[in-house]
Amino acid sequence: MSIDVGQLVNEIKTAASGVLTADIATVRGFSQRQLEAIALQTHVVATGIATNNISPELQDFFLDGLKDMVTNFTRTLKGLMAVTIEKIWNAVVGAVWNALSTAIGTVLPIPKAAGTIPAP
Amino acid sequence: MQSWTSRPAGNALFALMLCLSLLGCAIQLAPPYDKAVVDGLNAANTEAMTLLAEVSHGTEKATFSKREEKYNALIGKLEALSVSAGARPMPSNNVAEAINKKLEKRGTLEGFQDDDATPPSAHAIKRIAESFEKMRNHDMKVGLKPGDVQAFKGQIAIYFDQAITYENFLKR
């Protein structure tokens, strides 16, 4: 009935790094695509306005769109990071509770924090 | 019968469990995954890109009636999807608030008006619907130049990427 601290630390590291490796690749790919697409869109809008290839009535709409899509890009990134933090946190808590359950020989249900949405 | 030596150990274990139950709770910082939203988004993306490809060389207002039904069907689907994506409850708890406070303290969120009650995907889908509405109205009024279509396509594709990436990421 004891907890191997060294093993627990390794399990926490494995759980956290597993989440990080997968999620960082997704976030990096998304950021790269978005930055390239936003840069291209800026070029398309700027050139279209300068050469009159974009109708004058639509120009303000596209300029406002550039600002809004950059804002929502940052909101999306923040949302992705929140999911990653959630996954790492829960993986660490899961590893700790698993070690505790093993040590006392009883399966302990992991409690949920206040504000958590119950599963459907 | 319990020996006196095991009692402190039992108390320590109880204290540890109490601490963990108070501090080590599982958390939820984002809304639940919804397969119906993801499937709807993928279908709308295909439909949107097909329509954009059809008009990529520009349009004449005289032929607008051929496209009107496609525009309306797509706008309707996107507006319904935006409502579905935004209707899920956004979790609010101490951890999420602590992260926001930390970011505010660091100045990371300075000048950044965030709406934590709406998922970024719901906002992106709403903006796609608005883009198609603007495109339809301009097409009906004067027709579209190839440059207009190119700019609409770029904007719509960026919002689709934001919405699809976020919604797929919620599957955890």
Tell me about this structure.
The complex is a heterodimer of chains A (120) and B (172). Chain A is an all-alpha fold and 120 residues long. Helix content of chain A is 79%, strand content 0%. Chain A contains two helices and no strands. Chain A is rod-shaped, with a radius of gyration of 23 Å. Chain A starts with a helix and ends in a 16-residue tail after the last helix. The mean pLDDT of chain A is 88. With 172 residues, chain B is mostly helical. The interface between A and B is large, with 56 and 55 residues.
The amount of beta strand of chain B, in percent, is: under 5%
State the low-pLDDT regions of chain A, or none.
none
Say how many strands of chain B there are.
0
Radius of gyration of chain B: 25 Å
Q: Please count the helical segments of chain A.
A: 2
Q: Helix count of chain B, per DSSP?
A: 6
Average pLDDT over all residues of chain A: 88
Helical content of chain B stands at: over 70%
Structural class per helix/strand content of chain B? mainly alpha
User: Structural class, judged by helices and strands of chain A?
Assistant: mainly alpha
What percentage of residues of chain A falls in helices of 4 or more residues? over 70%
